[in-house]
Design goal:
7-stranded antiparallel beta sheet, 14-stranded mixed beta sheet, mainly beta, 21 strands
């Protein structure tokens, strides 16, 4: 199946010192999208509460994590972690980011590999490669791919689900950091109820209750008790950045932060989501 080509990947940073909405002012009502960005930081949209839950995953560079797996539609998304150019001796936990994303649609025999340098499409045995310097619209039965030069790409599947991959570029001579990617999901309810993965398990509605909000060790970081999935967790109010529309500055998204790699929020433990390959 051929593409028609008209030539004309995202990460969220969580700031634990951010204040509760009681103390923090937002220019407008934020829009929540289930996503992963930054170090890597996951943000889970809970639209019925007009709120969000977030958590970090701390793993070693080179590890590949399953983000989305839908056995019904055959759509999977995995991400490979990269680290800084060198270890930060002052940090207890080393930074890691998504340096490669793999999105597959099994019924279409379609695979998309995204890095901060290249975007590679595999359609059956045929491969087509682009760079982030290209502006491209690709269409075929069942999907559309739009590459916005040096900014992001949008992959829309026939089922209605869309993925936005945001490119984060840092100063080339930065002594520590390197370019990385963020992933945002739109219309994730179009995937089946059997969808799982670090992100996918939250595409179906999730409910939680917040109790006993009180000052934490820093009064600007209130703690609370969260009841979720029959677990009682200590959480901290903070915010993450949504970079879909503004890859440079982002938009502040308030959320409740779950500690310890999402323990008690995610099904199982985070190491259950480590996979052996991108596809």
């Amino acid at each position: 199946m051929q593409f028609s080509i008209l030539v004309c990947v995202f990460l969220t940073t969580f700031f634990p010192f951010a204040a509760s909405p009681l103390y923090h002012t937002y220019a407008s009502q934020p829009t929540w999208h289930t996503s992963v960005d930054g170090d890597p930081h996951f943000i889970i949209s809970v639209p019925q509460k007009k709120d969000a839950i977030c958590f970090n995953i701390n793993e070693n560079p080179g590890m590949i994590l399953n983000l989305i797996n839908d056995p019904i539609t055959g759509i999977t998304v995995n991400g490979e972690l990269i680290g800084d150019k060198r270890a930060n001796s002052d940090a207890k936990i080393q930074n890691s980011y998504f340096g490669k994303l793999g999105i597959a649609n099994k019924p279409l025999d379609f695979k998309l590999t995204v890095t901060p340098e290249t975007i590679t499409i595999q359609n059956g045995e045929e491969k087509t490669a682009f760079t982030w310097l290209d502006s491209v619209t690709l269409k075929q039965a069942g999907l559309t791919l739009i590459i916005n030069r040096k900014k992001n790409l949008v992959l829309s599947m026939g089922s209605g689900v869309s993925f936005v991959v945001v490119l984060h570029q840092v100063w080339k001579k930065h002594p520590l950091h390197q370019d990385f990617l963020g992933l945002y999901t739109l219309k994730s309810d179009k995937l089946s109820e059997q969808t799982h993965g670090l992100l996918g398990q939250f595409f179906q509605p999730i409910d939680f209750t917040i109790l006993e909000i009180h000052p934490g060790s820093d009064p600007k970081k209130p703690d609370a008790t969260m009841i979720v999935k029959n677990n009682e967790l200590i959480v901290t109010r903070g915010w993450q950045k949504d970079y879909r529309r503004d890859p440079k500055h982002g938009v502040d998204i308030p959320c409740w932060f779950v500690h310890d790699n999402g323990a008690g929020l995610i099904d199982g433990v985070h190491t259950d989501y480590i996979v052996s390959s991108l596809f």
